[in-house]
Design brief:
The structure is a single chain. With 142 residues, this protein is an alpha+beta fold. The chain has a single domain, classed as Bacterial Protein-export protein SecB (Roll). The chain is 24% helix and 33% strand. Strands 1, 2, 3, 4 and 5 form a 5-stranded antiparallel β-sheet that branches. The chain starts with a strand and ends in a 29-residue tail after the last helix.
């Protein structure tokens, strides 16, 4: 099993919107890029990454850079590296581990800058409206 340790090495964030103005309806774009994968002498992998978060309209921007250190059995590490060299997406556990760490950090940074967090917040249904457990449309039940 692969084990992934994620370290953030650089944080850049800036608020452009005047703090006294209300924030308009926005769209938030997030982009995670794995910029390389390198095998080390101790049979581990270094996986540098960059997260870019953009807001539209341009109320703020955020960028986090770091490295994921991947350890595990030699065959799993070799397979992850071979897949990367063949332009296949990185192993799910690598991307998931990176995402978990950097999105938590980006939420904390967004709180500091007083901007909307880059992940959707859970919606609470209005009182009095029944919560439908079945999607509308066709009924496939027996």
């Amino acid at each position: 099993m692969l084990r992934v340790n994620v370290v953030i090495t650089s944080v850049s964030a800036e608020r452009f919107w005047d703090i006294r103005k209300p924030v308009p309806p926005i769209q938030i774009g997030t982009n995670i890029n794995v910029v390389g994968m390198e095998k080390k002498q101790d049979e581990s992998l270094e996986v540098p990454f960059v997260l870019s978060i953009t807001y539209n309209p341009s109320i703020a921007q955020m960028s986090l850079k770091g490295t994921a250190y991947v350890n595990g059995e030699k065959s799993e590490v070799d397979k992850a590296l071979k897949d990367y060299e063949q332009k296949k997406p990185p192993a799910q556990i690598i991307i998931q581990s990176i995402s978990n760490v950097i999105f938590i950090e980006s939420v904390l940074i967004s709180r500091t800058l007083n901007i909307p967090p880059p992940i959707p917040l859970p919606q609470i249904p209005e009182a009095g409206k029944p919560v439908s457990t079945k999607p509308e449309g066709r009924d496939y039940s027996a």
